[in-house]
Specification:
315 residues, alpha/beta, globular, Rossmann fold, 38% helix
Length: 315
């Protein structure tokens, strides 16, 4: 009988009895919060984890506990990548491809949230450029390294409900910038990207999924002000309960190595299960239908290729 997992399930509970010896797993954002916990949980079960981070010195110090927890042949190594820089992404992926290292899982965990209006080094709006375009180029360039049966997990958020993508004005050149609208666009893009990638790769037995980790208090919230918090937690609503970091990382770990691939492929997961599709504005759970729309996903793919100046013939 399958174990029943939910919102309070932790990474260690998800991985109880799981042996990941011989598995190679890449995790972006491995210098804080969910990235560190994800790497720790996987390495403790024997996985060879490659952590990608912008600041290698910070990541080296922050992941000392990951290396101590590694067991059964598990390990952690680090690579540098700045997801807000196409030059950095291309240099990092070129090095990984040249090394010939193969992967069984890529977890696109890194991201930024509700930051002030800004631009990446390539002129993209910061949140869309980092959360979506950065991972779009990074992951697509590593597809040749994926083993048969591999999985890709794209970190989205319930914040996708704040906004659909705007393919006519992705950089807020004509639209008034609002931090959570920009965040919502980028998180919707994460779901659409996973859906598009899954359709392109499932014929090879490789599946992609998007996940919402839940509300967790990590460095991701560094830009949150009382005013911004009030926008997403209006008065009169039921009190919000934050998850712990091990609870928050559980869904991405579950989707990556525990859940049946055909169940999660092309889907959006939360609280260690596949979420229902709902357009109810009052619902705190579920995924909006626009985030899984196939035509919208393909349009975003084409727009993303145009923006980054690189085509990906993935099938």
């Amino acid at each position: 009988m399958a174990k029943a997992f939910g919102a309070e399930t932790t990474t260690d509970e998800v991985l109880e009895g799981v042996d990941l010896r011989g598995k190679s797993i890449l995790v972006t954002g491995a210098s804080a919060g969910l990235g560190i916990e994800t790497a720790r949980a996987l390495a403790a079960k024997g996985a060879a984890v490659v952590g990608a981070a912008r600041d290698l010195k910070k990541a080296q110090q922050a992941t000392e506990g990951v290396r101590r927890a590694a067991a059964n042949g598990g390990s952690l190594s680090l690579v540098a990548v700045d997801l807000a820089s196409l030059a950095s992404i291309r240099a990092s992926t070129d090095a990984l491809v040249a090394s010939g290292k193969e992967f069984d899982v890529i977890i696109a965990n890194a991201g930024v949230m509700a930051c002030p209006k800004g631009k990446t080094s390539d002129g993209f709006e910061t949140q869309f450029g980092t959360n979506h375009l950065g991972h779009f180029v990074f992951v697509n360039r590593l597809v040749p390294l994926l083993n048969p049966g591999a999985r890709i997990v794209s970190l989205s958020s319930a914040g996708h409900r704040f906004a659909d993508v705007d393919l006519d004005d992705p950089n807020f050149d004509r639209t008034e910038y609002q931090p959570f609208v920009a965040y919502g666009r980028s998180k919707t893009a994460n779901v659409l990207y996973a859906a598009a990638l899954d359709r392109r790769l499932k014929g090879r037995g490789i599946r992609a999924t998007a996940v919402h980790p839940g509300g967790i208090q990590t460095e991701l919230g560094r830009h949150l002000t009382p005013e911004l918090i009030a926008q997403i937690m209006p008065a009169g609503r039921e009190a919000f309960k934050f998850k712990t970091i091990p609870q928050g990382a559980a869904t991405q770990v579950w989707s990556a190595v525990v859940a049946p691939a055909d169940s999660v492929g092309g889907r959006y997961c939360e609280d260690c299960h596949v979420a229902d599709i709902t357009n109810d504005p009052a619902s705190r759970t579920g995924v909006r239908s626009y985030a899984l729309d196939a035509a919208r996903a393909d349009a975003l793919w084409q727009k993303s290729e145009q923006m980054v100046g690189e085509r990906f013939a993935i099938s």
